[in-house]
Every structure is written in C-alpha cells, then in structure tokens.
Amino acid sequence: MKLWRWILLLVIVAAVAAFCWHWVAEDPGYVLIRFRGVTAQTSLLAAVVLLVLLWAAIAFLWRVVRWPFGAFSRRHRRVSQQRLAEGLVALMEGRHGDAERDLSRASRLDTLRGPALLAAAEASSRRGEHGRALESLDEAAQVAPRAARVLRARVLRRDGKPAEALSLLTSEADSGSLSPGGWREYALAALASGDTRRAREALDPLQKSGVLGTRAYNALEAQILVASLNGAGDGAVLNTLWSSLPKSQRRAPVVVDAYARKAAAFGLTLPAMDEVESALRREWSSQLVETYGALAGDDLDARLRRAESWLEGHPNDPGLLLALGRMCVRLKVWNKARQYLERSLALAPGVNAWEALGDTYAGIGDAALAQRCYRNAIAVARGDNTEPLPAAGVVGGHLDTRPIAIEERDAHGVPRLRE
Prior knowledge:
Layout: H1 2-26, E1 31-35, E2 38-42, H2 44-93, H3 96-106, H4 113-127, H5 130-140, H6 145-158, H7 162-175, H8 180-192, H9 196-201, H10 203-209, H11 214-230, H12 235-244, H13 253-265, H14 269-282, H15 286-294, H16 300-309, H17 318-330, H18 334-347, H19 351-364, H20 367-382, E3 394-395, E4 398-399
Antiparallel strand pairs: 1-2, 3-4
Helix pairs in contact: 2-3, 2-4, 3-4, 4-5, 4-6, 5-6, 6-7, 6-8, 7-8, 8-10, 11-13, 13-14, 14-15, 15-17, 16-17, 17-18, 17-19, 18-19, 19-20
C-alpha cells in the first residue's frame, strides 16, 4: 500500500509539473534589472530560481560563519542533557547526593532549568535535606510554578508539616484548578493533619483524574474513610457521616468494619450488626466475620447459630473460627470454644486467638494453660516462638496443625473435589 501511494504521488507531481511548464512556456515573463549602467535581462522563472539559489547560498555562508561561535553553547547543551540523564538515573537508583549534584548543574541550561530543579528538589527531599529542597523549589517556581507548588507540598508533608502543605494547596483546591498530583498531595496532607472532610473532598477529583490506579485509589479511599469514621465524636455524627457516603464507598469491608466497631463503641450494636451482615451477604470477609463475633449484644445464641451455618461454606476460615470461639467463650461453652480456637490457631496463629484460648482455659479453671496462652499471645505480637500446649486436641505432644475441612466450596458454592 505504501508503494502504491508513492507512485500515485509521483504521478500527481509529474502531472502538475507538466501543466506548470506548459503554462510558463506560453509566457515566461520578462525581468529587466538596470543598476549603475549595468543591465541584466532574464525570464521571470529564471529570476525566481536565481533568488532561491542566492538565499540558500547566503544561509549556508551564515551558518558557516556562526559555527565556531556556537561550539561552546552546543557543548554546554550536550553536557547539560547528559547530566540531566545521569541525575535522573541516580535519583532512581537511590544515589541522591550524586543526583542532586548532576541535576543542579543541568539546571544551568535554560531549557532544562524547570525539570532539573524539580528533580534536584526531590533528591534533596529524599536525603532529608528539606531546606535545600525548598530552596531549589523557590528557583523552580519561576519556570514551573504549578509543579513546584505540588512538590513543595510533598516536601512539607515529608518534613512533618502537613498543615502547611494543606494550606499551600487549599486555594487551588477551592477553585478546582489543582493538578492531578496536587489532588493526591492535598488528600494526603489533609489526612495527615486530621482534616478528614477535606480529604474526602479530594476523592472525587482524584478518581476522575485517573492519576492513581484502581488498587492505589481504593487503598487511599479506604484509608480516608476509615479515618473519617474513627474521628466521629458521637453516634449521631457517625450515622450522619455514614448515611452521607455513596453506596460505592460503603461496600469496602475495611470501611464497614470501621463503622461497625465505632458504632458498637457508641452503643449502636444493632446498626453495626446489620451493616456487617449485609456486607457478608454481598462478599465474604474474614475481617468482618471476626468483628461480628466481637460485637456486644444479648442475642449471642442466635448469632452463634447463624455463624455456625457459615462453616459449611467456609470451614477453614480462621476469622470465622475465631469469632465462633469468642462467642462460645462469652456463652461459657468451654469445650466448643477450645475446639474452634485450636482450629483457628492451626490455620493462622494470631494474638487474638491465643488470647481467647487463654480466656477459655481460665474459664475451665486451668490457670497454668491460660497463662501459657497469654504468653504465646505476647510472643506472637513480638515475633517470638510460641510454647506448645500439652492438652486435649493435641497430636504427639503438639497442637494439631492439620486444617479440618467439612467441605471445600468455590466462590459459586460448588463443592471442590479433593486431590
């Protein structure tokens, strides 16, 4: 296809040239130049060709004359570009001192001044030299003011001054003229300074800009919403905030968990349980079911039966087993509590499970084993080794770590065949 296009173009050019030549041949024109007794006569076409050749010759001679004088500037430009490239590589490799030096030198070239100073400020900030970073940003603001402002906010936030960073970006945020990176810094600065309202205001522009990927945006959104819910002063404020959130923001398990725990702390146990149960019907979450077992209330028997019905679909979920064990501890069903908690520990040893098992043995009256469980909980929190339990449900002197499964099912509820 490309060959045919070239052939067609050549045919068109030849046709136009033939037509123009025929048109010029009929009347080539006449040009007479007389200067100081010298007379020159030629056709119009020849005069045009001579003028073009004269212009080309003058341009060539001008470049030849200028070449020696431009050698220094060309070398300066080449060296600055090389230093910029080396400085950026050093910045990515973590050689921040080398990066700062190379980028500062590269900024001497006017065309590279803005990006070089911004990168040099980032290198200084990563080294912890926040004062030098701000000095570089003062110079960069003369070339790239918006980018320098966003980077200044980042440097201030890293320096432990989120309120100053937030104040720097507030005017642009209120007018809606912040850049995508500015909205991210605005959200992080607001979150770090405790202004969760402004942090939530940045979520919508952030989502529309697409500056963050789906996973990164969801993580930041959940972090902001959890902080907002945890900062509620009373139950009325919490419910008002929860009802004002869009449905899409109330679906994340970590957000539902934060609301449920905060609502339960304010004595709103029923709304907390309703939200947790609704979330579990939409999507299974080990974190939520663990919270479900920790909520207060007088309907523990009904909740225990409901949670035990979930064992059929999730027999090896450590969060569900921990929730069942905790509810049995509160109901003083010690044997059942021990079985659930030992299975939970066999699947995923954790502080909460060891602590609940210690409560179980304390309820049974075995103070020695209860103290050992509590020591194990502390050991897990510290990252140390735990002590085995020489008790019932032990195989060969150690806790049975083989997961017990009634029936494994996939996400659609279809039983899996065992290998």
